[in-house]
Amino acid sequence: MLEARVEPRRIGRYTLLAKLASGGMATVFLAQSHGELGFQRLCAVKIIHPHLLDQPEFLARFLHEGKVAAGIRHPNVVAVLDVGQAGDTPYLVLDYVRGGSLAELMRRADDLGEPPSLEVACTIVREVLEGLHAVHTATDEQGAPLGLIHRDVSHDNILLSTDGVAYVTDLGIARARGVALTQATGLLGKAGYISPEQLAKEPLTNKVDLFAAGVVLWELLTQKRLFVDLEAELPMLTGTFELEPPSRSNPRVPAALDGLVARMLARRPDDRPRSAGAAAQELGRIIPAADRGEISEWVQSLAEPRLERLDAILRDAKQSVPPPPVASSTAGDTRFSSGAFESGASATFESGAHPRAGSLPPPKRGGGAARIVATVAALSLVGLGSAAAFRMGLAPRTSPSAPASPPSTSAVPRASAPVDPTVSVAPSVPPLPSATGLAPSAKPPPTRPTGGHVGAPRGQKPAAPPSASAPPSAPPPVVIGPAAERL
Fold first, then answer.
1. Which domains does the chain have, with CATH numbers?
2. Residue 91's closest CA among 27, 38, 184?
């Protein structure tokens, strides 16, 4: 039964929202898993009771359930999705079945006078038998049989979903071949569903699960308890127990179904059906499967109050439970501390912002005039640098007899070419202007020898023309193309 909402708390990557059930070994919570890219999913988290952590037998049994169930994949077995540990407390993560246990639904059906139909009851047990067959025939990674026995089949460990599917759950005391999980204080299982060979402490086989499933089927057909306690089962050991045929309480039960129930509840294991799968097939031949919609309608009508409480808890949780921190894809040392994002240098960003690591904050709107002035200044500086490089290409050579070099594809002259001592030329190409202006050591660029004002700074007179002794030099062609674009 859904007990109440719990104070949301995180365990691993799961947020616990409500307590679903509590048994002798563990408590099951409704939880929400959190994955990458905002992925969320409802699941069930099973946590062992704290007082059992220092008892190796119970701890081993709890971990054994996770190991066993994780290897079983069947549509009628509740899957174990994850196994984790928070501090010293291990936990199991299972598929969440929206609906209720068969025990809860049968209690409400008895209160409302709405028992399942013959077809619904037989379909539920048939799917349980198919799930048990998957448990019994499970293998390890190498294909070797595990020899599993559930040993705790009862109404409490059968779940029914609102879409009309039956599931076997709680493999906490399942026995595997070669694994001893024995409780020294008494029998394992639930009173009223324990087989005669368990009571007699005889060697066990998977036929003990057939006996328990037979009890469940008998009770669904008759709407009564077969064995109210262990004492009521003792006559089976002495051979004085007489089984009442289900048809005596339910006239719709055919004789063939009476016979199958009697064989499932036989005192000797060898007299029962050879396997859970064989019993499921025989049951399906006797009573046709119910329509899935009929089972779904029956479950929803009985589970409605419980599901309404559950939905209210989920709505409240969405408003009160803070979302988990989302991992960043930024490379580097990325950590989470109390919801703050840390990458290298500590920084906290507002919700919805996605800055790059180390980037500057985005510029504010406005400041159009400042941007125009900055653009004009940058273009002026680029023009000055280009003019300086162009004028350097006009410097005359000292030796008129020197062979003329072919026109350069760049406006920048060779650094080794001699120049006239009367002309002031920078020894090397001046650096391109930075964002703050020309380099401090840069000299004003020389002017054209013809005395023109090309490239002369505003307010500055052009330099004097070269002396008459200097032979004239033809200016190189102005390059327009890739070389000019690089200036």
1. 4-179+187-320 (1.10.510.10)
2. 27
